[in-house]
Each structure stands twice: as C-alpha cells, then as structure tokens.
Amino acid sequence: MEKVERKAYTEHILVLPYPLQGHLNPILQFSKRLASKHVKVTVALTKCIAKTMKIQVGPLNIETISDGYDDVGRSGASSAEDYLERFQTFGSKTLTDLIERIQSSDDDTPVSCVVYDSFVPWVLDVTQKLNLIGAVFFTQSLAVTSIYYHIYRGLLMVPVPDGEMISIPGLPMLNVLELPSFISDIESFPHFLRLLVNQFSNVDKADWVLFNTFDELEPEVLNWMAKLWRVRSIGPTIPSKYLDKRIEGDKDYGLNIFDTKRAECIDWLNAREDNSVVYISMGSMAVLKQEQIEEVAWALLDCDYNFLWVVRQTEENKIPSRFRTDITTSPGSEKGLVITWCPQLEVLSHPALGCFMTHCGWNSTMESLSLGVPMIAFPQWSDQPTNAKCVEDLWKAGIRVKVDEDGISRKKELELCIKEAMEGEKGMEMKQNANKWKELAVQAVNEGGSSDKNVDEFLEALK
Fold first, then answer.
1. Could you give the residue numbers annotated as active site?
2. Cα(162)–Cα(238) distance, rounded to whole angstroms?
3. SS3 (DSSP) at 153
4. Cα–Cα distance between 398 and 389 in angstroms, integer?
5. Rg (CA), the chain
6. Which pLDDT band holds residue 3 (cuts at 50, 70, 90)?
C-alpha cells in the first residue's frame, strides 16, 4: 500500500478569537482565507465555545485554551471586567502551554505568528515572550476604531457635551448620538468603554494591525491610521461563495450559536416575488424595548411589502399577540414570516429581498454592502450609530430611521423608510450604490485585489 505523506507546510499561524459570535465569524473566515493560501492555521477556541458550538471549519485545526470558565463561558462571570481578568490569567498560561506543545512536536510545523482579537491585547505579551510575530485583528470598522483611539490618546475627551460636533480625520462631522453608544452614554457602559479603549494598550508593539474592511470603503481613515501602525485591510471576511468564489466549499461561516431554521426561511422566500421582501434583523445581542418592537410590528403589518422578521427567542414575548394572529389568519397570511434566526447570507443574496432593516452591527453592514443590499439603518448601541452614519452619509447605501424624544422610532417613520427604500427615489440611489460596493468588495478579495494583495504581503513577511 502506498504511503500517504503528510502535507508539508512552511508556515503555521495560530489564531485566537474573542468568544462572541460577532467576533468569531470574521476571524474564522480570515483563517479560512489564510488556509486557502497553503498555510497551516490552528484556531484556539475557549473550551466552552468548543463544547457548545457546532464547528465546521474545513481546513482549520481546532485546539482549546481556558478562559477560566470552561463549563459556562462568559455567563459564569459576575461582570465583563471579571471575565476579562480571568481570561487573561487562565488564557495566558494555557495559550503558552499550547504553543510550547506545538513547538516541541516533531510532527508539527512550528507556529511563527499569532493573530488575535483586539479585545485580548495580553496575547501580544505571550507572543513576544515566545519570539513570535503578533498580528492584532480588529472586528470593528476603521472609522469606529479611530474614534476609540482618539479617546485613548486624549484627543477626544469624554463625556462629549450635548450639541458639540466632533471632527475625526477621514469622517464627516459627528454629533454625540452618531458616536458609539459607549461614548454617548458613559454612565451605562463604563466597563465597555474601558475594554474598547484598552485595545490600544500595546498596539504600537504589534507587528501587524489587521481590519475586516477593504481599502476602497474607508480610504481616508485608512491613510490616516497607516501613519500610526502597519495597518492592512483584509476584508470583507465573508464566505468566498458570496464574493470571489475561489475557496472551494466555503459557503458559510461554519460556526453558529443559533439554530438557523434554514429550510423554513428559504422555502418561504422562494415563494415570494423578486425585490418584494423587507428583511429585519437586530443581530445577536441588541435588546429592544417592548414599545419599539410593537411599533415595528404594526409598521410591518400595514406596509405594502412582504417581510421576514428575525426576533430572537429571548425577545419573542415582546411581539403583540394580535400581530401574530393577524399575520397567520388574515387573507394576507403569506405576507410575513417571524422566525427566531435565519441563514443571513442566504437571505441577503436571495432575489426576493428588497432591503435590509438592520441594527448596523459591523458584520451585518459588511455583509449587506458585499451583497449589494440597500439598508434601513436602525442602530441600537455599541458601534452601530457610527456605522449607520457611514451607511447613509458616506457610502449612501441606506437610510437612517429617525427616533422621537423617547428614543423610539414610530410606526409612521418606519413605514416611510420602508417605502422610500423599496420604491422611492432615494431607494433607487441606495440600490445603485449598494451594487457599486458589492462590485468593489468582490474586486478587493479577488486575485490581485487590494485585500488579496494585503493578505499575500502579510504571509510573505512571515517567511
């Protein structure tokens, strides 16, 4: 019998994500792109994530480290600060042990570089002690990262007074409510702001600073930031099937916390006419007030379009019972589908889709731009207000909903935004611009594109 030789790799990259869905997906997708370029990639997941998620990541090797909460994960911590402190203590030791085990193995290619999420800057200390290259990976936009960096450097003082306009290089003027919520509402989120500012505690020592964006999308901020660090944009980090189609079998992220209810969603969409569906999703973390969910419900019921509305199981009890009755028993019972989760990439790329009402999390924003889908920007917290500002005013691929003095977007406003996005003059412009960004996103990751060249440059420097 002919002996099958083990594939010889010249480089081995270890990747350490932060254990949140919105952080895991982009860095895992980047890992798959690295692996497609004949590099060995090992992903170090926390033990809890590895046990609780269905992982299908193709060519990637999976190892585990400890965050100090191996059975329950982040939910076992008394606070975000407690979790981060314990993760650093346990993670530093178990990551070091993992790397040393790989380095001492005769059957493995030694690790030469560690790519790590910006939320865990302590990883760079481990890589430097072990004489490895350290590459920090930011899952936020360049724009939002720049805002947090200005706070870290004392160039933007918080709290920002009401009515003051903020100037950040490469961005339009921003009012307080267009800044990330951790800045506009410091009292509610002091620990989150500290976490985000702490991303820069040792970034000057990192060998590479990588971003899930592409050069053409944020050129001015990129040029400004490139004067500080060795910055490279390597996105969009979404499956190759939806972009360049160069990575065989790469059709989904391969890791999901939620049951996606795929068949139910796609079968329902298949029965709808092209460009007839409004898709609504507020992501995996945003919590809406019951009053806001009710306003969304009545707007969807009375608008002239089909709708696919994702409402997480924890939020379902906020949907008015009369709304559910109306969409299931009325003559237009096929008008809407309410579901707890869905395969978002398949939905966004479906011909039935007309627009995406989104919270403007960065992953959803990048997916929508990459698939040419116009957006109704409905930001809730975190980086979303700034992303929404860029969607409407910089990239002109969406329209932002207005809120009243109570912070609620009312039924009438939502209906107006839906109508404008689906058939209005601005909606036509949004669709044209969304298609433009789609073409540029594909070009960026395709052979010879800006992101493809950046990935190749990164790998070449490891040799």
1. 23, 117
2. 37
3. coil
4. 9
5. 22
6. very low
